[in-house]
Design brief:
Number of domains of chain A: 1
Shape of chain B: globular
Helix content of chain B: over 70%
Strand content of chain A: under 5%
Distance between the termini of chain B: 47 Å
Mean pLDDT of chain B: 89
Number of strands of chain B: 0
Helix content of chain A: 55-70%
Radius of gyration of chain A: 17 Å
Structural class of chain B: mainly alpha
Structural class of chain A: mainly alpha
Number of helices of chain B: 11
Radius of gyration of chain B: 19 Å
Largest sheet of chain B: none
Order of helices and strands of chain A: HHHHHHHH
Oligomer: heterodimer
Largest interface: A-B, 25 and 22 residues
Low-confidence stretches of chain A: none
Largest sheet of chain A: none
Distance between the termini of chain A: 33 Å
Chain lengths: ~190, ~260
C-alpha cells in the first residue's frame, strides 16, 4: 500500500465532526465582532484536534506490524494541516500586530500539544476514544491555571508579567510537555521490556 | 450490574434515576468539578483564616465560581452518560426494551438530582462554616438553592444536547462557551438571562431560580420531542415557556429599574 493510500484510509477513520463544530462555532463567535474572543476558536480547534487518535478500529490495527507511534504519526500528518489552515483562516480576522499573532500562534500550538498529550494518555483508558476526554481535561487545566497568580500561571489566557515574550515562552513550554507526554504514551504496548 | 425491574412508567424512571445517579456521583467529570469547587472554597477559607480583612461580599466569589464550574462539569458528566448508547452502539438494543425514550429521559433527569443534592449540601456546609468566620448575608441561603437549580438546568442542557446533537464534542463546546463568554462588567437588565447571574434581593433571586427551573423543563420538553411529540410534551413545553417568559419579565423589569441601581 502506498503512503498516500495509507493516509487516505487513516483519514477515513478519524472523526471530523468536532473540527466542523469548532470551526462553525468559532466563526460565529468571531462574526459577533468581539476580537478579544479570538481565544475561543483557538481553544475549540485545539480541543477538536484531540479527536485525531479516536479510532474505531484501534483493537484490530493494534495487531498489525506497525508501532503505535507510527500509526499515531500518520494520524497527526492527516489532522494537523487542516487544523492549522482552519485556525489561520479564522484567527487572521481578529489579530492586530505581529507580536499578538506570534503569541496567539504559540497559544494555539501549546493548546494543541496539551490536547494531544491528554488524548494520547486517555486513549489507553478509553478503548481508543480519548478525544471526548481531552476537551474537558483541557478546560480543567485552563481553570486550574487561572487559580494561580499571573506570575506563576502555566497556561495564561491574559496578561502576565513579562508581556508577549513570557506568554510565548509559557505556551511553548506547554507544547513541549504535551509532545513529550504524547511520545511517552505512544510507546508500543508490545515493546520489549528491559 | 444493577437490574431494573419492569413496572409502571414512573417506577422505571425512578429506578433509572437511582442507577444513573450513582454513576454520575462516581463520574470523573463530576468529581473534577467538585475538586474545582473545593479549590475555590479553599482559597476563601485560607483568606478568612489568615486575613482579618476578608469579607463574604468581597471574597466569597471564589466559592460561587467554584460551584458554578462544578455545575458545568456535571453538565459534561450528564451528557457523557446520556451518550452511552450512542457511544456503544446500543441505541437499537435498548430501543427494543419495554420503556420508551421519554421515560429514560425522565430517569436521566432524575439522576441529575443526585449530584445537585450532593453539591448543594456541600455548599450549605461551606456556608455554615463560613458564617463562623465572617458575616454571611441572609440571601446566601437563596443562593445555595440557586446552585441546585443551576445544576438541574445545566443537567437539562446536557440531556438536550445528547438528544439533538449526539456528539461527544457538543457539550465541551458549550462548557468552553460558558467559561469564556461573560455578559460584561457593566450591569444591564438583560444580564438576568445569564444562568450565573446573582440578584441582590431575595425576591428577585427566587424569580431567577424559577427562571432556571422553567428553562430546565423547557429543555427537557425540547429533548423529548426528538423521539415523541404528544400532548404531555406540549403541555410541559407551553407551561415551562410561560414560566420562563413570566420570570424573565419580572427579572428584567425589577433588576435595573429606573428608581435605583442595578441589583445584579
Amino acid at each position: 500500500m502506498t503512503t498516500a493510500a495509507g493516509l487516505r484510509y487513516t483519514a477515513m477513520t478519524i472523526p471530523w465532526h468536532p473540527m466542523v463544530i469548532a470551526t462553525v462555532v468559532g466563526a460565529a463567535v468571531l462574526a459577533s465582532g468581539h476580537a478579544r474572543l479570538v481565544v475561543i476558536p483557538t481553544t475549540l480547534l485545539a480541543a477538536a484536534a484531540g479527536f485525531a487518535f479516536d479510532d474505531p478500529s484501534q483493537e484490530i490495527v493494534a495487531a498489525s506490524p506497525s508501532s503505535l507511534l507510527h500509526r499515531r504519526l500518520g494520524r497527526l500528518i492527516v489532522v494537523i494541516p487542516p487544523t492549522i489552515i482552519l485556525w489561520t483562516t479564522l484567527v487572521s480576522q481578529g489579530v492586530s500586530g505581529i507580536d499578538e499573532a506570534f503569541t496567539l500562534a504559540a497559544m494555539f500550538i501549546g493548546m494543541v500539544g496539551v490536547t494531544f498529550g491528554i488524548a494520547g494518555v486517555a486513549a489507553h483508558r478509553t478503548g481508543g476514544r480519548g478525544g471526548a476526554v481531552a476537551a474537558p481535561v483541557l478546560l480543567l487545566a485552563l481553570i486550574i491555571s487561572a487559580l494561580f497568580p499571573p506570575r506563576w500561571r502555566p497556561l495564561p489566557l491574559g496578561d502576565v508579567p513579562g508581556g508577549w515574550p513570557a506568554l510565548q515562552a509559557r505556551w511553548s513550554a506547554a507544547a513541549l510537555i504535551g509532545a513529550l507526554v504524547l511520545l511517552v504514551s505512544s510507546r508500543d504496548p508490545a515493546r520489549r521490556r528491559l | 450490574m444493577t437490574s431494573i425491574s419492569s413496572g409502571p412508567a414512573r417506577g422505571v424512571a425512578v429506578a433509572l434515576a437511582r442507577v444513573d445517579g450513582r454513576h454520575l456521583l462516581k463520574s470523573p467529570l463530576f468529581l473534577a468539578g467538585l475538586g474545582v469547587a473545593m479549590l475555590g472554597t479553599a482559597v476563601f477559607v485560607l483568606g478568612a483564616l489568615t486575613d482579618d480583612a476578608t469579607t463574604w461580599s468581597n471574597d466569597a466569589w471564589t466559592i460561587g465560581a467554584g460551584f458554578i464550574l462544578a455545575a458545568v462539569f456535571a453538565m459534561l458528566a450528564v451528557n457523557r452518560t446520556s451518550l452511552r448508547d450512542h457511544r456503544e452502539h446500543t441505541d437499537e438494543q435498548h430501543g427494543s426494551l419495554p420503556t420508551n425514550q421519554t421515560q429514560r429521559l425522565a430517569g436521566m433527569f432524575g439522576a441529575v438530582l443526585w449530584p445537585a443534592t450532593v453539591s448543594t449540601l456541600l455548599l450549605g456546609v461551606v456556608v455554615v462554616f463560613a458564617s463562623t468566620q465572617v458575616d454571611v448575608p441572609a440571601i446566601t441561603i437563596v443562593n445555595v438553592l440557586h446552585n441546585a437549580a443551576l445544576f438541574l438546568m445545566l443537567g437539562a442542557v446536557g440531556l438536550a444536547l445528547a438528544a439533538w446533537v449526539p456528539s461527544s464534542f457538543a457539550a465541551p463546546v458549550v462548557a468552553f462557551a460558558l467559561y469564556f463568554i461573560h455578559p460584561g462588567e457593566t450591569p444591564a437588565a438583560w444580564h438576568v438571562i445569564w444562568p450565573f447571574a446573582t440578584l441582590g434581593t431575595v425576591g428577585l433571586a427566587m424569580w431567577h431560580i424559577l427562571y432556571l427551573l422553567g428553562l430546565a423543563l423547557l429543555l427537557l420538553a425540547t429533548a423529548a420531542t426528538r423521539w415523541e411529540r404528544g400532548r404531555g410534551q406540549a403541555i410541559v413545553f407551553l407551561g415551562s415557556a410561560a414560566t420562563v417568559a413570566t420570570s424573565l419579565t419580572v427579572l428584567i423589569n425589577g433588576a435595573c429599574s429606573q428608581a435605583g441601581p442595578c441589583l445584579l
